[in-house]
């Protein structure tokens, strides 16, 4: 950048802003006033389900801003369960995974690191109990600590699945977590809920 343009702010009434800064003009927006209009939007993702589904009429009236698409989208806020598996922790990938979800715009609402007992692992993967790889899967999940996370956002379940990538890292798209960071199906770093219902159950 060869030249910085000074930021214009409202000057006190007794001063002439144009004389102090040639880049400013009376037509410029008062930034404090503009930002104040967005204050009612700061808590859109409150844990209170009622506040997540509506914006208070009084706030909308005060700000003079109406975003019908945003109000409608609040009805689609979901929660999903994401688990970083033992190999992800061993390789120091927890921060990388969290960063990818945050950059997507989702909100981390819960996190816990613990050693998963065998009974809990078997319950978690009970739908795979008939598979030949089930014993190896349980041994893998219980081989070290896991990081369990709850994420919240509009369409977070489907988006999380896309961020994670296919089960087999070799078939996962480049740029996904598994496609970019994993090699083997049996060591694919992370688990994500496959439906909103399972997300609630797993959380």
Automatic annotation (TrEMBL):
ATP binds at residues 85, 133, 161, 167, 178, 188. It is an enzyme of class 2 (transferase). The active site is at 191 (pros-phosphohistidine intermediate). Keywords: ATP-binding, Kinase, Nucleotide-binding, Transferase. It catalyses: a ribonucleoside 5'-diphosphate + ATP = a ribonucleoside 5'-triphosphate + ADP; a 2'-deoxyribonucleoside 5'-diphosphate + ATP = a 2'-deoxyribonucleoside 5'-triphosphate + ADP. Gene3D superfamilies: Nucleoside diphosphate kinase-like domain. This is Nucleoside diphosphate kinase. It comes from Arabidopsis thaliana (Mouse-ear cress).
């Amino acid at each position: 950048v060869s030249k910085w343009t000074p930021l214009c702010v409202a000057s006190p009434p007794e001063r002439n802003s144009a004389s102090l800064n040639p880049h400013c003009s009376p037509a410029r927006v008062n930034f404090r006033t503009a930002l104040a209009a967005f204050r009612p939007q700061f808590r859109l993702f409150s844990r209170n389900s009622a506040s997540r589904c509506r914006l208070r009429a009084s706030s909308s009236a005060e700000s003079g801003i109406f975003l019908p698409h945003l109000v409608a989208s609040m009805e689609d806020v979901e929660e999903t369960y994401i688990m970083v598996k033992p190999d992800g922790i061993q390789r120091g990938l927890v921060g990388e995974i969290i960063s990818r979800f945050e950059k997507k715009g989702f909100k981390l609402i819960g996190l816990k690191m613990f050693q998963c007992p065998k009974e809990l692992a078997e319950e978690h993967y009970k739908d795979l109990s008939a598979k030949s790889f089930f014993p190896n899967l349980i041994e893998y999940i219980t081989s070290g600590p896991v990081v369990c996370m709850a994420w919240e956002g509009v369409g977070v379940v489907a988006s999380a699945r896309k961020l994670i990538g296919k089960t087999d890292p070799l078939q996962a798209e480049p740029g996904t977590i598994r496609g970019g960071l994993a090699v083997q199906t049996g060591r694919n770093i992370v688990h994500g809920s496959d439906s909103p219902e399972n997300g609630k159950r797993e959380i």
